[in-house]
Amino acid sequence: MHRFLSATLAILFATTLAASASTIRLKDVVEFDGVRGNDLVGYGLIVGLDGSGDGIRNSPFTEEIMSNILERLGVNVTGEQFRPKNVAAVFVTATLPPFARTGSKIDVTVSAIGDAKSLLGGTLIMTPLTAPDGEIYAVAQGTLIAGGATAAGDGAAVTQGVPTAGVIPSGARIEREIEFDFASLKTIRLALREPDFTTAQRVETAINAEFRRGVARMLDAGTVQLDIAATRTPSPAHALGIVENLLITPERKARVVVDQRSGTIVMGEDVRISRVAVSQGNLTLRIQEEPLVVQPNPFTDGTSVVVPRTQAAIQEEPGIGLAEIDDGTSLSEVIAGLNALGVSPRDMIDILKSIKAAGALHAEFVVH
């Protein structure tokens, strides 16, 4: 019974989606042009590890950055030989959110770049984070929270998760703001996350109904332009505060998504199948070698001989006989019928591929 669980859950999920075609807020459908985050990256050092850091001989850049930090702190290490095992070189990444202000804190992700075994319990030393323009926009520092564990002995080792990467919640403080005069914008473009002409037209209609005709204009399947001055609001922020809460019903393409590893099948409500006949069966070929050793007669000069013995068999397991699917049948009905016949999810995926190849499945077919 459990082998049909994935397909059954997929059918229930698709049925629920079809039954609840409700309206969605505009903020969950579009992105506002110019209102986005910016990527930051830095190169730093983790200290305080329990002997699981970089091997300095294999990671010379770790020794270099550690020397630079000690020099800045007034410790002269020129010509000294040190081989600590409790430090590790890391890359620090973060995203500077839109409208972030100086003094605000953001989360950072820390990843080892050397041969460190684990970053558990480590502390990130003050690391500047730069943007593609080369300017420093934030400084990160704090105790790392790693998402894994490792244990090792003389003869074996076990690792769970990824102990060489982790996060520091609120681990970076913003030191510089990105200059963006949002209040002076005259027009703003709304970019649809999934471009569609029907959805874009509905966005245009909803905005014009809220303000007045001509405020919004659809440019293409993925863009709607909003005239801020025509909204008669005090500022662009006030206009977007109204626009992002408008409700629309987005249009979805007919799509079937299958995951071959787990046997999951997810489909939209608009998927249709033309008239087609399906026949499916499983063919199994078994070959088994059982060599036979023949011994010579007693008191003779003969030698033992290995005689090959091969058993070969072809077995065709019962599958689906010739079944005919009527024109206009929904895919959820087909999956439900196959599931009732005891067809495994993986066989269902093969059948759907064949139906798509025959040109009878009218939907985008996505395989993961």
TrEMBL record:
Coiled coil: none annotated. It holds the Pfam family FlgI. The keyword Signal applies. It comes from the Bacteria. It is found in: Bacterial flagellum basal body. Transmembrane segments: none annotated. One of its GO terms (molecular function) is structural molecule activity. Keywords: Bacterial flagellum, Cell projection, Cilium, Flagellum, Periplasm, Signal. This is Flagellar P-ring protein. It comes from Celeribacter marinus.
